[in-house]
Design brief:
This protein is mostly helical and 205 residues long. It has helices at 2-22, 26-33, 49-53, 58-83, 85-100, 113-123, 125-142, 145-162, 169-182, 184-192.
Length: 205
C-alpha cells in the first residue's frame, strides 16, 4: 500500500509539472514582448501560432510553434527520464490540458496542435514525423489549417499501432479527442463551407 500511495503521489507531481509547463502561453508572451499587441484582439483571438501569424510577424509565429511544441516535448521527456513511461504519458497529457485550459488565462487557451505534435515527436520521432506528415497532407490538400490538425489527430491511433506503441493507445486516444473537441467550431465551419483557408484573413473564432 505505501508503494501504491507513493506512486500515486508521484503521478500527481508529474501531472502538475506537465500542466504547469503546458499552461505557459508563449504566443501571448511573444506577442507582448515583440510589440504585436494582444492576441485576444487579433484574428481569431486564439493564443497559438496560426493566430500569431495573423499579426504579420512570421518570426513570432515560428517561435510560438517551436515553444508550444517544445513545452509538451519537455514535459514528456523529463518525466520519462526520471519517472518512466507512465510518468511521461501523464506529464505529456497534462501539458496538453495545460495548453488548452491554462489557469492563468481563465482556462481559455489554444487548440493544442503544436503541443500535440511536440508530444508525438517526443514519444517517438517516427510517430512525430508521421503525425507532421499527416498534418501537411490534410492542410495543403484542402488549404485549411484546421483540417491538417484533424487529419493528424484522426490518424494518430493508427500511427501508434503501426509503430508498435500499443501501450500508448489510451494516451493517444485522449489527445485525439482533445484535438477534436478544441476544433469543434472549426468542424462546424468546415461542414458549412465557411472555414477560412490558408492565407485568407479571418475575424472569426
Amino acid at each position: 500500500m505505501p508503494a501504491i500511495e507513493h506512486s500515486g503521489a508521484m503521478m500527481l507531481i508529474w501531472a502538475l509539472l506537465g500542466y504547469g509547463l503546458g499552461s505557459v502561453p508563449f504566443g501571448m508572451i511573444l506577442a507582448r514582448v515583440m510589440g504585436l499587441g494582444n492576441l485576444r484582439e487579433i484574428g481569431s483571438g486564439n493564443i497559438g501560432a496560426t493566430n500569431v501569424l495573423r499579426t504579420g510577424n512570421k518570426t513570432a509565429a515560428a517561435l510560438t510553434l517551436v515553444f508550444d511544441a517544445g513545452k509538451g516535448a519537455a514535459a514528456l521527456l523529463l518525466a520519462r527520464a526520471i519517472g518512466g513511461e507512465a510518468a511521461a504519458q501523464t506529464a505529456g497529457l497534462m501539458a496538453m490540458v495545460g495548453h488548452c485550459y491554462p489557469v492563468w488565462l481563465g482556462f481559455r487557451g489554444g487548440k493544442g496542435v503544436a503541443t500535440f505534435l511536440g508530444l508525438a515527436l517526443a514519444l517517438d520521432p517516427l510517430v512525430g514525423a508521421l503525425g507532421c506528415g499527416a498534418w501537411l497532407i490534410g492542410a495543403f490538400s484542402t488549404r485549411i489549417s484546421s483540417m491538417g490538425a484533424l487529419v493528424s489527430a484522426a490518424s494518430f491511433t493508427f500511427v501508434l499501432l503501426f509503430t508498435g506503441h500499443g501501450a500508448a493507445l489510451g494516451f493517444g486516444m485522449v489527445l485525439t479527442l482533445l484535438i477534436f473537441w478544441r476544433h469543434r467550431g472549426n468542424i462546424a465551419r468546415i461542414r458549412a463551407g465557411t472555414e477560412p483557408r490558408i492565407g485568407q484573413k479571418t475575424t472569426g473564432p
